[in-house]
Design brief:
CATH topology: MetI-like fold
Number of strands: 0
Strand content: under 5%
Distance between the termini: 89 Å
Number of helices: 11
CATH architecture: Orthogonal Bundle
Length: 289
């Protein structure tokens, strides 16, 4: 009886069956690289198609008149941009003061205070900012004879009413994030509840809520554009009011581009500040040094 010689791996020496090698699997990094390449290619194709189909001469004539843009200076900076910053800061400061009171009322042990703060926040969070400006600027003077406040005060109050409702909830969440043990320790040292709140809780809560408050300041900057519906003198115009006046005078939309750049000058640094504060305080535990 003959035997067939075998190889070391146990297969017959005369076997012609080809050896198979396992296929190399594509790694996650390689798949991600290919996916990004496809996405970039699609974006490039879309950009090329838009560039080829766009009517650049019409766009430049409508939105890119350099002579009209230059003609808006220096008023767009010395008056409109300055007024926008003033309106925003005044509305934010007043709104923050109201928001702190509302947050403390929401956390109060007195039920009436909690109910009033809840109604206020839900009411103004549910109203469009435009409605608040219309009521403050036109509704109240009609309802109450002699209710004629300066325009700056009306804008400040309208912005404060809108922003305070949102900031109150942010501040309340920040206060609740402070460990209760710190308040109990302060009370054991003889501090009153109000003093512990002012000296212990609020400073730590403000660190926690700085990033969202910065975002609220950005939103308030854009909401200040609604002041144009109240009308204003030349010196009292903010950015949007100036842009509308220039568009009426020139029958061109270039002023909107100039104003958009001015808004970006305000909001981009604030957005960067918000990210910095979020990295610094966002993951920090309350009470940590």
């Amino acid at each position: 009886m003959s035997t067939t010689p075998e190889r070391e791996d146990g297969s017959p020496t005369g076997s012609t069956t080809p050896r198979t090698t396992p296929k190399a699997k594509m790694g996650k990094r390689q798949k991600a690289k290919i996916s990004r390449g496809i996405q970039y290619a699609i974006l490039i194709v879309i950009a090329v198609v838009v560039a080829l189909l766009a009517d650049w001469s019409t766009l430049l004539e409508t939105f890119g008149r350099v002579d009209l843009a230059i003609g808006m200076f220096p008023d767009v900076i010395t008056k409109a941009l300055k007024n926008t910053v003033i309106f925003t800061l005044l509305g934010f400061i007043l709104g923050l003061a109201i928001a702190i009171v509302l947050a403390l009322m929401r956390l109060s042990s007195v039920g009436v205070y909690r109910w009033l703060a809840f109604v206020y926040t839900e009411f103004f969070r549910g109203l469009p900012a435009l409605v608040v400006f219309l009521v403050m600027g036109f509704g109240l003077p009609l309802a109450f004879r002699g209710f004629n406040l300066p325009q700056l005060v009306i804008i400040m109050i309208a912005l404060a009413l809108v922003s305070s409702a949102y900031m109150a909830e942010t501040i309340r969440a920040g206060i609740q994030a402070v460990p209760k043990g710190q308040v109990e320790a302060a009370r054991s040292l003889g501090m009153s509840s109000s003093r512990a709140m002012v000296t212990i809780v609020l400073p730590q809560a403000m660190r926690i809520i700085l990033p969202p408050l910065t975002n609220e300041l950005i939103l308030l900057t854009k909401d200040s554009s609604l002041a144009y519906i109240l009308g204003s003198s030349v010196d009292g115009r903010e950015l949007t009011a100036l842009a509308r006046a220039e568009i009426v005078n020139t029958a061109n939309l270039t002023p909107f581009i100039v104003v958009a750049v001015c808004y970006l000058i305000i909001t981009i640094p604030l957005s960067y500040l918000s990210r910095v504060l979020e990295r610094k305080y966002g993951s920090a535990e309350p009470g940590a040094n």
